[in-house]
Amino acid sequence: MSSHHIAIIGAGPSGLIAAERLAVAGHAVTIYDRMPSPARKFLLAGRGGLNLTHSEPLDCFLARYRDARTWLEPAIRAFPPQSLRDWADALGQDTFVGSSGRVFPRAMKASPLLRAWLRRLDGLGVAFARGQRWTGWSEAGVLTFRSRDGVDFEAKHDATLLALGGASWPRLGSDGAWATLLAARGIAIAPLRPSNGGFTVDWSQTMRERFAGVPLKRIVLSFGGQSVPGEAMIDAAGLEGGAVYALSAPIRETILREGRAVITVDLRPDHEAALLVQRLAHRRKGVTLSNHLRKAAGLAPSAIALLREAAKGPLPQDAERLAALIKAAPLVLTGLRPIERAISTAGGVAAAEVEEGFMLKRLPGTFVAGEMLDWEAPTGGYLLQACFATGVAAAAGIQAWLAES
Ligand SMILES: Cc1cc2nc3c(=O)[nH]c(=O)nc-3n(C[C@H](O)[C@H](O)[C@H](O)COP(=O)(O)OP(=O)(O)OC[C@H]3O[C@@H](n4cnc5c(N)ncnc54)[C@H](O)[C@@H]3O)c2cc1C
């Protein structure tokens, strides 16, 4: 097989795995990245334990991508969660399944895995061009870059993979600026929006001052017919955390459409309403309502504060109405937190723009992979799995295209 020179732009997980596949196949690969070091977001993901993928049955796993399932399914079936675990294992980072079914490397961080991976890429002869921002194409269709010192240059390759990430946490490298460059070439880009992010709430002053930074533990959040158990974190501007992220896509769409979304919070999911009524029915004389709620219903001060926000006035005194509020406290979410703080990005290169093998229909020889594609998924390892799988699929697509042409 003849060797080709391939440009990969973006040194995140999707670009790096594609580089590995192409270099193993004997191609000369150069990875360009605007940052001085690779995979900064991957390293940050490692601070939370690096949830690489999930162990649930593949059918449930694929359902997490909702509308994007049909698009991503062939890539994920070709490189499923077990392949990702085997790959990490081969780099000396074996994985384990946590109690939630999520899969983590035993080291619970990304740095040892990334170090071993970069050594492997170095051994395969992959070249890194660091601190080089891709700026588009010349009139002749050649890739253009700008170095950190402001020097513009062009670089010609046989094929290109764009693996530029989403638009969250831009200081780590992926800033979504590629969207304008691709749109100028007529490529449809679904608007980049925060995914797995928090929402704003018009908290009272007491809530902002006394409860910012306090978690709401063991709650169930419900919205649009979906209920998610977990935790949420109160902050001065609103609410974030795992349970909020899991519902972030439908909540975001409702806020964008209607300007607000009302979620309900079950503050005692382990107790039926009837049991709460029974416990709350007898309040001893002289006991404040807060103390009564704490002792009889087992509510933390943050949960009681949330009840007061939901009641928008004095709390009801009778046990039935109190129990109903504890089981379904309505909370109005008024806006999206900025994409800069979201874990991931919804929107991106539209599925209709991409051929099998992840080549852009309008730009033959240019492929796309990872979070810059128009899909979203909850946290739980689904983000990295799709980035790896589409990186692997794009590498296969590049090889097939080069072989044909
Ligand atoms: C706090 C946090 C925690 C997370 N935890 C998890 C987790 O536990 N599990 C999980 O599955 N996912 C997690 N994620 C999400 C996951 O890290 C991303 O989905 C993944 O890194 C995306 O990979 P990617 O290769 O598509 O893009 P990225 O990792 O974003 O890489 C894109 C690269 O492209 C480069 N680039 C962008 N534009 C240009 C340009 N014009 N020129 C040159 N280079 C450019 C950037 O510098 C960057 O290095 C987390 C994200 C965050 C923010």
Verbal overview:
The protein is of the alpha+beta class and 405 residues long. The longest helix is centred in the last third of the chain and has 23 residues, at 382-404. The two termini are 13 Å apart. It has 15 helices and 20 strands. The mean pLDDT is 97. A hairpin with a 2-residue loop joins strand 14 (226-235) and strand 15. Helix 1 (13-24) packs parallel to helix 15 (382-404), helix 4 packs across helix 15 (382-404) and helix 11 (273-280) packs across helix 14 (319-327). The strands form five sheets. The protein has a seven-stranded antiparallel β-sheet. The chain has a five-stranded parallel β-sheet with strand order 6-2-1-10-20, with helices on one face. It is 37% helix and 24% strand. The structure holds flavin-adenine dinucleotide. Flavin-adenine dinucleotide binds at residues 9-15, 32-35, 40-42, 44-45, 48, 50-51, 133-134, 163-165, 168-169, 173-174, 177-178, 343-344, 370-371, 381, 383-384, 387.
Overall form: elongated
Number of continuous helical runs: 15
Report the average pLDDT across residues: 97
CATH third-tier fold name of the largest domain: FAD/NAD(P)-binding domain
Uncertain segments of ≥5 residues (pLDDT<50)? none
State the total count of DSSP E strands.
20
Q: Give the CA-CA distance, first to last residue.
A: 13 Å
What is the CATH architecture descriptor of the largest domain?
3-Layer(bba) Sandwich
Radius of gyration: 24 Å
- Tell me the structural class: alpha+beta
Query: CATH top level of the largest domain?
Result: Alpha Beta
- The portion of residues forming beta strands comes to 15-25%
* Helix percentage range: 25-40%
Strand order of the biggest β-sheet? 17-16-13-14-15-12-18
Query: Ions, cofactors, ligands: which are bound?
Result: flavin-adenine dinucleotide
Largest sheet: 7 strands, antiparallel
| Number of domains as seen in the coordinates | 2
CATH superfamily of the largest domain: FAD/NAD(P)-binding domain
